[in-house]
Amino acid sequence: MNAEVVFTIGLNLLLGLAILLFIFRIVLTWYPQFDLQRGPLRLIALPTEPLLAPTRRLVPPLGGVDISPIIWVGIISLLREVLVGQQGLVHMLL
């Protein structure tokens, strides 16, 4: 495999993992009794919280529901499609 293919696959996997982590955060909002600062749930909170905290300041919870993880799933999905989709920028440049 050449470097371009490895880069494309790596970027695709990284963005897919980010989407998966934010989906876990969405599910975890349904269970507020779980402590995200302890145990294995910390592995989900640590990489996502730096993006969620500023988003919560811009878009406060609506009706008590935190929609910031949903916003990030949309942003990263769009970014993934634009960069590594079938006609994405990475494919056109490489």
Protein traits:
mainly alpha, 94 residues, 69% helix
Describe the structure.
- By secondary structure, the chain is mostly helical.
- Helix 1 crosses helix 2, helix 1 packs antiparallel against helix 3 and helix 2 crosses helix 3.
- It is elongated, with a radius of gyration of 16 Å.
- The mean pLDDT is 91.
* Average pLDDT for all residues: 91
Number of domains: 1
Alpha carbon gyration radius: 16 Å
Percent of residues in β-strands: under 5%
Q: Sum up the overall morphology in one term.
A: elongated
**Estimated helix fraction:** 55-70%
N-to-C terminal Cα separation, in Å? Answer: 14 Å
Instruction: Give the quaternary arrangement of the chains.
Output: single chain
Q: Structural class, please?
A: mainly alpha
Number of helices: 4
> How many DSSP-defined strands?
0
* Low-confidence runs: none
Task: Provide the succession of SSEs.
Answer: HHHH
Report the sheet with the most strands, covering strand number, pairing sense and barrel closure. none
Can you give me a brief rundown of this structure?
With 94 residues, the protein is an all-alpha fold.
List the helices and strands and how they pair.
Layout: H1 3-28, H2 42-58, H3 68-84, H4 89-93
Helix pairs in contact: 1-2, 1-3, 2-3
